[in-house]
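TL;DR need structure tokens for one chain.
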Amino acid sequence: MSKTIPNQDQNQLDNISPSRYISAVKPGAGRRLSSKIETAYISEGGLLFRADCLDLLTTMREGSVDLVFVDPPFNLGKDYETDFSDDLETEAYRIWCRSWLIELARVLKPGGALFLYHWPKWLIEFGAWLNTFPAMEYKSWIALKMKGGFPIRGRIHPAHYGLLYYVKRGGKPTFNVVRAKSPTCRHCGKLVRDYGGYRKKFQRFEDEDGIPWVQISDFWEDTRPARQDKSRGLQINELPLHIPERAILMASNPGDIVLDCFVGGGSTLHAAHLHERLWIGGELGEPKAALQRIATFIGEQETVRPPKRLINCFADGLLQTELNLGPNGHKRPVSSVGKLQNVTGSMEQFASKSKVIGF
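>> reply
TL;DR here they are.
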């Protein structure tokens, strides 16, 4: 798949105000890696890098991962405490996103799945653009209810985010039936929904309290951004665990490799570990929040070398040279950041809420 930027896009770039990402959206074989690429965490289950997303992706082999889940910066002027500008001009942001989408499509295995979380405004555009890729096949637009949304004067009330779901052609996609508990009244505990004549069909999927686990649809009502959680910093981009969890359960199997190059608070890595997938993560800034989550739920113990399957995702010799693989006697980042605070009283937000059951 070509990495060349169309002439009209390149002309737009030349007229855009400076940003550290302007150089990053000019892909090419001669592009140098950032000196900031470094391994932040190494284990038998996964690798976390402190890295520019494009630097990380261009080091990876074509067709090396089974599933990609990304929740990128939304270009809203948010302070990520890095030299990344989250306030790019529209065309610069568009081309930057296209650049890493091209790379994500390249590193996916045939049959692998791509999930992109964003606002509907941008998902419409990215979806239409991805539809022009011969290698990519549209599967679904998943709507996620925005519980904290408020009416805005002069426009319809925005009440959902979106999750685009694509697969790479050329292989058999994985699809598992994912189920979640049917919603119940928080006061009386009874089912909120009446399944009519279909209620008996769910009896074999009931839990010990008689609550059925029902197949998820393309509208998820039990989701919300994790903005107000006291265990996270305001600059951290973090989704509730069950958003990446459902994508991972639905479109991958245990032992598959999951990639997230915008790690943020580490929800994707946590979900992958929880369900026995290998994982690769990247974060441009200091990955403190993700490391705290790793230390809390995965463990601080590291290994000198990750599994061969993860090493094989990268160019020959890269992990031993460019990325400085392995603890080197200095105190490792994961042992320096500590664990998440105030977790005991909010364990529900970190609990698995989905299962692969039946058909």
